[in-house]
């Protein structure tokens, strides 16, 4: 659409949202007309492309007229993290003030939403929406538009399954309110914002009906430096940082794969000769939320600074303009890599990224990742454990404190069968989470009532409104002088009194039952150890499968070579499928894991031919070994409360037996070319 014509269709929102830019981006030109016409849509475009404005401006034009009735929530914006909510709320303050549109926030940490007199716009997470549906459903009966930001973070996750049910509950609520005359209609317009998805049409259809995919097809070019880094020796990193001045760079974000690495590299950088002086920050999930926000603000405002982070800064929190993103070690999936490099130079036409590898495997992974960064994992089957959490939430919401099967089946239509729901209800009744009320009705049992009573406790084992695993066995870290909680950590056995936190050494002054009381150490020169254990990221099938081409091997090549310890066989299936392959092979021949079981196994004899397994064979194996795979497949905090048949079925569904067998059937077992022997061995033994 002609920009002038499009501007004319935004009489109120053009100035506040686009006036300072003076023009529209590609995604805005494509999406705004469709949303103004009332369509629901998934907007796909790259980082910093203006997707948020492309959705909000037309939705405000349509649903928040100047003569609207006050005190009615019309626009609901769902985001994956509280940090993103805080960031977006800050960004929207000025344009919404100009438009006289009120905006509130509801999260576990901040709640400015007043259900009796709601704001026009609400920013919240799926978990807080769940809480609102349970406690104040009337506040949602006038919602006419829903925006789902960062949709790709929900796809193929238990939170995404919860969100699907919550949106179904919202639609049912609107229909019920319209039928009673409490709402003018039951229509809801949807807009989802995302980076590239593997199957966008299927993804959109899971969250809202009749949605179209609007994509620019554009992707910012990214310049990659791949650089060796000796493990535990940051001199190569420091040499790279010294080039910033000649490049005209001042700010860098550095991603590490573990909290331990964040701490150690931040400590080395504080003690080393770098261009940043004291402006060295560390950011990860176990820091207290208030402290993380302080770090984000300080880093954003700093003219020259460096921040070491775990996955907490993968998403689009505003931390100012970055010149470059550095990755120390390869992440285990293309999704994580795409999120991380997407933070680089967000306001520029091209981006800069530096990938530091410490082993040949990390180097190969980085080379593979640069070819895989386009897509995100396709949607996965619905996880039935979400039904348990939603049953508890629905009971909390019920005016009669009871729940019947037919309304429950309507909420889970297309997700779970009535027979499966009856099985879940029966299991919960047997476990005393539910009890039978009137005929055909279930009510909260003694164990659920205890769980409800524990919700405000720090030792709550399960959240009524979340499917994420809670680690209740933690220690607080408190500053002994201010008494402020600065972090929480898993309980560990400490063998000395020196720790690292935010790259600084701390002394443990004393330990009580709930906290470590700490003070700053005088000697900050030699960092000792992190307070966190380190573990490498899980290697995905998609990433492992892309490795052979980096060695020049043809598609499907599964080379083997003889070593002193036996025959090393490369399957390239990733950690989850690699484990299953190992255990299935052990039924017929001796096999052991290599040092990198996600890409190779160690066999006693040369492999002549792979056994032929059927879907029944692998399903039976998974059914027997389901407990091993439950922690690996992200099945949700309530998964262990399911009936055993559904627990086993969920493991089999998420594992995707058909894809596994297809991947195995494509493997061509052959002897490794002699020219590649050294390269293959180095991948497994991780020798620099």
Kindly describe this structure.
The chain has 688 residues and is of the alpha/beta class. It has four domains: 3-215, 3-Layer(aba) Sandwich (Rossmann fold), CATH 3.40.50.300; 220-373 and 473-536, P-loop containing nucleotide triphosphate hydrolases (Rossmann fold), CATH 3.40.50.300; 385-456, Arc Repressor Mutant, subunit A; 541-685, no CATH class. The protein contains 25 helices and 26 strands. Strands 3-4-2-5-6-1-7 form a seven-stranded parallel beta sheet, with helices on both faces. It has a six-stranded parallel beta sheet with strand order 8-13-12-9-11-10, with helices on both faces. Helix 21 (615-624) crosses helix 23 (644-655). The radius of gyration is 26 Å and the shape is globular.
